[in-house]
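does this look right to u?? zinc ion version
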Amino acid sequence: MTSANLCAISKVATSTTSPIISFLVSFVLPLVIFIALGQYMSKRLMNSIGGKNAMSFGMGKSSAKVYVPDSEGIHFSDVAGEEEAKESLAEIVDYLHNPQKYTDVGASMPKGVLLVGPPGTGKTMLAKAVAGEANVPFFSMSGSEFVEMFVGMGASKVRDLFKQAKEKAPCIVFIDEIDAIGKKRDGMIGGNDEREQTLNQLLTEMDGFEGNNGVIILAATNRPESLDPALTRPGRFDRRVPVELPDLRGREEILKVHSRKIKLGEDVDFHTIARMAAGASGAELANIVNEAALRTVRDNRTYVTQADLEESVEVVIAGYQKKNAVISDQEKKVVAYHEVGHALVSASLSHTAPVQKITIIPRTSGALGYTMQVETGDKYLMTKGEIEDRIAVFTGGRAAEEVVFGEITTGASNDIEQATKLARAMITQYGMSEDFDMVAMETVTNQYLGGDTSLACSAQTQREIDVKVVELVKKQHERALEILQKNRQKLDEIAMYLYEKETITGEEFMEILQSPIAITDAQSQDDYGQPVNMDTEEGGKEV
Ligand code: ADP
Ligand code: ZN
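got this back:
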């Protein structure tokens, strides 16, 4: 369970590539009771990859599809946010319009530009927009297609593609998922010959054409670190354009772009939706808008309301509501306490995002409930105190189970994973432990897909790190237990309310939390009847 930031999207926006950020982006996921989180994530990943494949299968037969100028009509104005990326690409557009200007000075355009960023951030769109703005043909192929569909023909397909492109120059050649052919050659015996021949052919083609012949190759990848250095050498893909997940403003703009065709109610507030969807990619935001429109049609209404959009944020994060899931009363109670545990710990700490919503309606992703917290703005850095608080919030669900039922469940598995990752990163990546000072014990190997890390320390040190990680999490877990014990009555009161209503808003939550304690029989048997005092040194948080 999760609690704290659920939202998957509580990511912290990014526009730099600092490890903190990449880490948060990947891990600050919903705090959800995700029994099936693993499955869900891989499904989601597949979806985003699947979308692309579908596109490339469509054009699988011919070697590369020629897009007649303007047939798709995508322009920079259709790509919301991503200002930096558009700026770097604008130069290429200018060159395609007026190559003479560049040759006169003796400047040559890079032959290859690498668009680097997580899936669904608009890399393909940007490549098409470059062609659209420059009004030149757009050839596109996907790297996985070379490897999977053109077995035995990869190299000749590459030759074909470039032959066509040179005939049609000036033009854009777009290679999606270039990592599929351009992975580092690992020197393993019996390596993938097919892939290597394809890659060699690509390198030969790039070296073969003189600069300034009007063919510009744009390639996209979300695993830049896995690319063969031969590809990124000067004269090949020597320019790199980061295409990051959108920040708060970017998300708002993307929502607006995709709502152009949608009939909207007067209550729609994209700023709030953008905040709720922290961490969402452009593709997910497009999906949110469409889900909301579908929901509107399903309910026989004529325009999309704020509620439609809010519900679709949750659908995209956690799946559809399972209206008729059969959950025993006891389990429902456990889930209610678990989620309120997260929320209550969060509200009592000072460095946490406000609770937006708590729900115990199961979702198709396997989430049995979640607590959504929404940051009020973009955050690019996290302090040590904030990370500690966040870990405490992650442990709050399990802590509630302990305090109330004395028996624990599997519901905290996702919380445990997230808390551990954060605690570990504090020590190994962020230099936030005294023992290891500013020494990197782990390096992030893939910034965009899950933030994989590789260890860079001795076995002895690894053992010490493991001990420290446990200590760190344990300390926060104890803090969470203490908070919940002190606020046992509020915990009961809110959990029972949630149990009845199944979904409560952040305002309802705060209202009950701040109301005077109802006098019940429970009080006499409870030593911890003190409410959270909102202004004590306990770190009470004002709302
Ligand atoms: P990528 O190639 O980075 O995986 P795509 O360019 O295929 O992503 O984007 C998928 C879809 O997501 C697009 O067709 C568009 O609907 C939406 N999208 C992504 N980023 C943006 C953006 N910055 N502005 C508008 N729409 C976007
Ligand atoms: Zn939880």
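The chain has 20 helices and twelve strands. idk if thats expected tbh
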